[in-house]
Design brief:
The protein is of the alpha+beta class. The protein contains three helices and six strands.
């Protein structure tokens, strides 16, 4: 699996990585049902589906994970992850990953 380190922490003893999501967005969340937007306009399930596909095509669908290096063997251990992220890592999710790393580094 291709992965890339997004951010190194704790002097290289921890990192946040990203990899392309392997599952289909719609196999996890199902097909959209449509909705009424804030202006009262109806958005069909097909329009919502097309909008999501457009976002994924443009920004990608990613799996982010936090890893710490084992003090004993030097192998990377995953301590937290978030998948089905369209585009860049939201700051709230980033903070969750960093918090998981910090708990392991104590």
């Amino acid at each position: 699996m291709y992965q890339e380190t997004v951010e190194e922490l704790h002097d290289g003893r921890a990192r946040i990585c990203v990899a392309p999501e392997e599952e289909s967005y719609f196999s996890v969340y199902g097909e959209p049902e449509g909705y009424t937007d804030a202006d009262g306009n109806e958005v069909t399930s097909e329009q919502e589906h097309d909008s999501i596909v457009e976002l994924i095509d443009r920004d990608g669908l990613w799996y982010y994970f936090a890893q710490v290096k084992c003090k004993c063997c030097g192998q990377w251990e995953t301590v937290e992850s978030i998948g089905m992220v369209i585009g860049s890592l939201d700051s709230g999710y980033r903070e969750d990953l960093i918090s998981a790393i910090d708990k392991e580094m104590v």
